[in-house]
Amino acid sequence: MRTDLTLRALKAVRNLGILAHVDAGKTTVTERILFLTGAVHKRGEVHEGTTVTDFDSQERDRGITIFAAAVSCDWDGHRINLIDTPGHVDFADEVTRSLRVLDGAVAVFDAVAGVEPQSEAVWREADRHGVPRLAFVNKMDRAGADLDSAVASIRERLGATPLVVQLPIGREEGFEGVVDLVRMRAVVWPPDTGAHEERQVPEALRAEALRRRRALDEAVAELHPQALEEYCAGSAVSEATLRAALRELTHAGEAVVVLCGSAYRNRGIEPLLQAVVAYLPSPADVPAVRGTIDGTEQERAADPAAPLAALAFKVHAAPTGRMTYLRIYSGVLRKGDTVLDMGVRRTERVGRILRVQADRHTETDVAVAGDIVAVIGPKSARAGTTLCAPSAPLVLEPPTTADPVVSVAVEARLGQDTDRLASALARLAEEDPSLVVRTDPETGQTLLSGLGELHLEVAVEKLRRDRGLEVSVGRPQVSYRETVVRGVAGLVYRHVKQDGGAGQFAHVVLDVEPLDAPDGEAGFAFASTVVGGRVPREFVRAVEAGCRDALAEGPLGGHPVTGVRVTLTDGATHSKDSSELAFRAAGRFGLREALRSCEMRLLEPVAEVTVTVPEDSVGAVLGDLAARRGRVSASATRGGTAVVTATVPLAELFGYASRLRGRTQGRGTFTTRPAGYAEVPQSLTAAATGQ
Questions:
Q1: Over the range 120-138, which residues count as b (16 or more CB within 10 Å of their CB) and which as e?
Q2: Among 57, 84, 137, 355, whose CB has the most other CB atoms within 10 angstroms?
Q3: Residues 284, 287, 289, 292: is their CA dihedral positive or negative?
Q4: pLDDT in tens, 342-398
Q5: Does the annotation flag 93 for ligand binding?
Q6: 140 is known to lie in a ligand binding site
Q7: Dihedrals φ, ψ of 258, to 5°?
Q8: 96 to each of 100, 228, 428, 534, how far by Cα in Å?
Q9: Is there a binding annotation on residue 144?
Q10: Does 141 appear as a known binding residue?
Q11: What span, in angstroms and rounded, lies between the C-alpha atoms of 586 and 547?
């Protein structure tokens, strides 16, 4: 049982992430939070390369966040552990791993653009993890900024229920503050004072503020029983009830509280922090974490008295040693403790515990349930590994890792650096699970695979800067898939092997057919209709395992196979020579033979591309997209700027950034997000498969 003292300590913690599309202002929001809370004494600026969280040299050179950075600060008696996540689609895996260990998040939106492609992607990921969110509409001082339009895009594109708790005071350049609709007070930031002031609601805005407060009361009453009861009794909801209702609706994910401001001009951060404390959950408010041990599910509450359970979500090779970032879900971790690494099932000693402030850190002797810290000592832990008390083992669900879609061949320019390159690549893959290193069996080349062209570019540059290696890089290649268009029925395969001693016998009959799903991302389905015990259950499982083995290489070009359904319809066994090994081999070789008889199609990864260009450049951009086999799905014009959305094969986007700059005199920008797989035209299949 948690004591009152423990419960109060847990309720004073907020573990949250900052999520958004690239350039929406996530890092600036983070910097202003750190400055306002006294964690830093000088405001960092992205354009000056002086931010705390974008500390890597590549982040400062490129002006974007690449790696998720953890920082901590204190506000109003609360400890805030904050993770600034990347906004670029190529680094979405960093966002996924961060969301796995967070209790809440602040989604930042551009007041002009509203919901952008990557905003939608990270929002869906947060939905999948059940992470409660606040929305902060940033850049209210920009020309064309419109809170109502941004809120409408949240409602329409994200399917969320926005509850707007602020009314802007002033528009665009004249934006100077907000009306807090919950307290019905004005909060303004006079120029050059650096501090906010509370005032009465301006007379010119009083009627509008009252109208919006009533709309807020009505919206909350529709969702919250107690608020509905008050509203029906007196046509209004009290401040206390409104606050409680907003908190409960946020925790339940039924609505999202919306605030606004301009982080660059230091306007809106104090109310945002107050909302974080008031509405986002603490570790004590979230459900107990679930894990498994020996197939049995267990729960661990956020209680220091419970056995230790911690999840590693990031690994970083720092000059001070190999740092493993942990979210501690239960128990206490002390310096010098021995923990059980469930990934390799062996014990490790924790040498140091660090409270991290981006690239700086301070040592501590103890970390408790609810904390996010880094440790030095464990040598085998990977992202997704559970560290727990040796006396109470538990495996927590690891974060998912996206499959790589782009590959480049890398080799050391100097022969003596070959071993160093192999070691450096292994370290890269250890730090970033979305990077995969493998050897091409045909060419013998070392291939580095990732989530996009920029992802691989950053990884290769890291080899050069951090490891001092001179490497040669081949042209990027996309990861194709193969799928079944027309299947076969009743394919018979007999696996018979006799080479002395016990033999191997397995007889299977397979039906193979397409598995329908959008974009070919159907995966694999297996079923058995065998009756009469002709194939025992354990052999059926072996056939399924063999079929999964066969999916690794398709008949068109050796690419992985997806979108296939296999049904085991009949079979036979031998009293002595049948075994799981024999039926696994029959499943593998039988499906390979079946796929060669099927009509197959090659699939290629495609991306949704959103291009923003001046109106006078639209024709050139549309022509270029058509030449890249792009299919335009939407086009809109706003204030002399055109926004074109198209689906384009990923292979056609290599080098697109420089081409777009050339066609728009440097004024065009674009963003991408994965959109699954699509069939490769027959005219291009031969070239893609090398046939």
A1: bbbbebbeeeebbbbbbbb
A2: 137
A3: positive
A4: 988 899 999 999 888 876 788 899 999 999 999 999 888 888 899 999 999 999 988
A5: no
A6: yes
A7: -115, 125
A8: 6, 36, 18, 45
A9: no
A10: yes
A11: 9
Q: Taking the alpha carbons of 417, 418, 420, 425 in that order, is the dihedral positive or negative?
A: positive
Q: What is the C-alpha to C-alpha distance for residues 285 and 280, in angstroms, rounded to an integer? A: 9
Q: What's CA 86's distance to the chain center, in Å?
A: 9
Classify residue 473 as exposed, middle or buried by CB count within 10 Å of its CB (0-12, 13-18, 19+): middle
Tokens encoding 276: 């974080």
The annotation status of 24 as a binding-site residue, yes or no, is yes
Residue 112, both tokens: 């002009």
Asked if residue 623 has pLDDT above 60, the reply is yes
23 annotated as belonging to a binding site for a ligand? yes
Q: Find, among 308, 304, 288, the residue nearest to 9 by Cα.
A: 304
Q: Which of 322, 292, 319, 251 is nearest to 104 (CA)?
A: 251
Residue pLDDT, tens place only, 582-607? 999 999 999 999 999 999 999 998 98
List of residues 6+ apart from 169 with CB closer than 8 A: 175, 176, 177, 178, 179, 186, 188, 202, 205
Q: CB–CB of 398/384 below 8 Å?
A: yes
495 is in an annotated binding site: no
Query: Would you list the DSSP string of 203-218?
Result: HHHHHHHHHHHHHHHH
Q: Which helix (H) or strand (E) holds 588?
A: helix 580-597
Residue 350: per-residue pLDDT: 93
> 573 near 652, Cβ under 8 Å?
no
Mean of pLDDT values over 488-503: 84
The answer on whether 316 is annotated among ligand-binding residues is no
Rounded-to-10 torsion of CA 680, 683, 689, 691: 160
| Best-predicted range by mean pLDDT (20-24, 206-210, 437-441, 478-482) | 206-210
Tell me whether residue 20 is annotated as binding.
Answer: yes
d(CA 217, CA 68): 37
Burial annotation 176-204 (CB, 10 A radius, 16+ → b, else e):
bbbbbbbeeebbbbeeeeeebeeeebeee
Residue 154 pLDDT class (50, 70, 90 cuts): very high
Rounded to the nearest integer, the mean pLDDT of the chain is: 87
Percent of the chain scoring above 70 in pLDDT: 92
The reply to whether 384 sits in an annotated binding site is no
- pTM score > 0.90 for this model? no
DSSP 141-170: TSTT--HHHHHHHHHHHH---EEE-EEEES
- The letter for the amino acid at 267 is R
139 annotated among ligand-binding-site residues:
yes
- What is the set of domains in the chain, with CATH numbers? 7-182+257-279 (3.40.50.300), 289-396 (2.40.30.10), 406-479 (3.30.70.870), 482-597 (3.30.230.10), 603-689 (3.30.70.240)
Annotated binding-site residue? 678: no
The answer to the question of whether 78 is labelled as a binding residue is no
